[in-house]
Amino acid sequence: MTAALDPAIWRARDDSQERGDTRRLAHVATGIEAGIQADDPVLIGFACDAGVARNQGRLGAAQAPQSIRRMLAGLPAHDYKRLVDAGDVVCDGAQLELAQDQLAARIAQVLSAGARPLVLGGGHEVAWGSFQGLRRWLDGIGDTQPVLVLNLDAHFDLRTGRPGSSGTPFDQIAEYCEAHGHAWQYACYGVSRLGNTAALYERAAEIGTLWIEDHAMQERHIAQRLADVDALLARAGHVYLTIDIDVLPASVAPGVSAPAAYGVPLTVVEEIALKVKQSGKLRLADLAECNPDYDIDHRTSKVAARLAWQLLAPSKTQAEPKFR
Questions:
Q1: Coil, helix or strand for 90?
Q2: How large is the average pLDDT for residues 115-137?
Q3: CA–CA separation, 170 vs 185, rounded Å?
Q4: Which of the ends of the chain has fewer CB neighbours closer than 10 A, N or C?
């Protein structure tokens, strides 16, 4: 785990000679050594390709945390007072399970401080580490309320083979919750019928997954999808939101481990993410499968940075629009 803020990454143009608030995230970012305060937005990187390698995918997602940070650095701060960068959990070689355990420990630490963590993956093996961190915190405070795991993804990631990989995290969560008697609901929105075998659909049905395929996740469906999310939120005590960037069309997010031929528009993904955030039940979010090695003009990292900015931004009532 690296903790010190990297000035080579957190840098942005200086407009301090201009009028008004010209701060950018690079100007309010701080390392974890400065401490974590309640309600701080906290970034945690998960620099890992091991799960993708085990899942026979193309490597490169380990570079995503740094690439996304670079795109975040220049974004305007607006209502951000500060942004804590808790550094990266780095997977050493094939030691995936160790890295996931280290990630879980860091997430539990951030949640215990009353802060708001967002994890930048890495392959979608990040989800098993993320969930373990959330579960450790909940167990520590004796909270048994049901957890909604909402995955915006073209893939179920419910493979039953072991050892774990980027294709198994939600099956691992299902096994864990069944073994320990934890109440949870898995929902996967954006599923591609052409990206999942019949066996994966069967496993999804077996564990009670609620899924919606990509063709029903277009802009014309936003109102119904938001209503569906409201129904999910009503039954949950806590929410873990995980966004696999490959849920987006390849034209929007070319730099991913498995580009989507069809995909879900960014408008829909963002509206759902904001709906979850506004519920007050979002405890943890992560972004997975951004792969800078295959990106075009940082397009995918910029999309991931936008979603990260939206999820971590302090909540504020929107002002009424002014027209001139």
A1: strand
A2: 98
A3: 11
A4: C
